[in-house]
Amino acid sequence: MKYKVFIDGKEGTTGLKIFERFEKRNDIEILTADEDKRKDPAERAKLINASDITFLCLPDAAAIESAQLCTNPNTIIIDASTAHRVNPQWAYGFPELDKTFREKIVSSKRIAVPGCYASGTIAICYPLVKSGIMPADYPVVVHAVSGYSGAGKKAIAQYEADDRDKGLDSPRLYALTQMHKHLPEMKLISGLTYEPVFNPYICDYYQGMTVTVGLHSRLLAKKVTARDVHEMFASHYEGCRFVKVAGFMGEGVLTEQFIPANTLAGTNEMQIFVYGNDDRIMITTRFDNLGKGASGAAVQCMNIVMGVDEGTGL
After folding, report:
1. Phi and psi of 140, rounded to 5°?
2. Which of 273, 260, 115 is nearest to 198 (CA)?
3. What's the confidence (pLDDT) of residue 28?
4. pLDDT digit string, tens, across residues 224-277
5. Cα separation, 173 vs 199, whole angstroms
6. Among residues 275, 135, 141, which one has the least CA distance to residue 218?
7. Residues 142, 186: contact at Cβ < 8 Å?
8. What's the CA gap between 250 and 254, in Å, rounded?
9. In angstroms, how far apart are the furthest CA atoms of the chain?
10. Cα angle 18-259-221, degrees, rounded to a multiple of 5
11. Among 16-25, 176-185, 258-267, which stretch is predicted with the lowest mean pLDDT?
12. Comparing C-alpha atoms, which of 199, 191, 147 is closest to residue 173?
């Protein structure tokens, strides 16, 4: 069977990456709009309802509009925007978190793909809360760095311009008002009582991301060592295809005591590192902001829904 797939917003960064991942697949048929009609609601509605699966790679307002255009009860919508990530009627597209997330993806017609920073944060915080190690009201602080591709076409053009501003040569801290759009899902999906303090940096490289959460052991819900925390993560993600926990202190993965952010670019993989000491325990996720943090996660969810190998095209 060939699945009919429509990418609403194929011209954006995420849409283009999804399209690229379909190039060698023979189990799907891509539905496309004529260039002069790609923003026409009637044309989009026709293609959405003719599809088996539609990806929404759009700004939030446009994604909400497109979801409402769907009247075909058999069409599956996979939304890469922020619009539906905290909506309980939508499955949250992070199957590795636990089996209930995977089961909801399989059974749902509406799937919201996690945000890139949110993926890295939730991969850390969800197991910590679920295991009882970290209390839900822990004062979480998240530090993150990302390549500039995650900021969209306008930022990419700024970073790649010949006459760019000198400030772009260095990491730039942003989200200064603590109102970043990924915060609601970080809180809700992780099971946190409060939104984290979030310090993201956009940096002068194209793609790749690290997200880090530090723990003061004296503030945890139970007494644990750094190795205890590592063992919990290794057990939680055991058997996962795309989420892997490195050996303690990065053993088996790191060749020196640095965690570069861009080494998983082009993949759908996520690595988790536990390091530090028994007083201050550090956890870092490393992945591709355009892969497991966006298009890769979307395609993985589609594969799960289709019942094919979840790594197909990834």
Report:
1. -70, 135
2. 115
3. 93
4. 999 999 999 999 999 999 999 999 999 999 999 999 999 999 999 999 999 999
5. 7
6. 135
7. yes
8. 5
9. 62
10. 95
11. 16-25
12. 199
Residue with token string 């996690």: 114
Q: Within 13 Å, how many C-alpha atoms sit on residue 15's CB side?
A: 21
Query: What is the C-alpha radius of gyration for the chain, rounded to an integer number of angstroms?
Result: 20
Q: Among the options 57, 70, 116, 125, which is catalytic?
A: 116
State yes or no: pLDDT of 72 exceeds 80: yes
Q: What is the dihedral of CA 220, 211, 124, 298, to 10 degrees?
A: 160
Query: What sign has the CA pseudo-torsion 226, 228, 229, 230?
Result: positive
One-character DSSP codes across 64-106: HHHHHH---TT-EEEE-SSTTTT-TTSEES-TTS-HHHHHHHH
Can you say whether residue 247 is alpha, beta or left, with left for phi > 0 and alpha for psi between -120 and 50 degrees? beta
172, containing H or E segment: strand 172-173
Cα–Cα distance measured from residue 166 to residue 156, given in angstroms and rounded to the nearest whole number:
15
How does strand 270-276 pair with strand 243-245?
A: parallel
The per-residue pLDDT for range 26-51, each reduced to its tens digit, is 999 999 887 777 778 889 999 999 99
Give the Cα separation of 27 and 2 in Å (integer).
Answer: 5
β-strand pairing of 209-216 with 141-147: antiparallel
- Residue 86 identity (one-letter amino acid): V
* C-alpha distances out from residue 258 to 19, 49, 233, 276, Å: 33, 48, 20, 13
Q: What is the DSSP letter of 146?
A: E
**Is this model's pTM higher than 0.70 or not?**
yes
Active-site annotation holds for 116: yes
Count, residues in the chain:
314
Rounded to 5°, angle at Cα 149 from 148 and 152: 105
Helix (H, G, I), strand (E, B) or coil at 271: strand
Short-list 57, 25, 19, 23, CA closest to 309: 25
Contacts of 81 (CB under 8 A, 6+ apart): 56, 57, 58, 59, 60, 62, 63
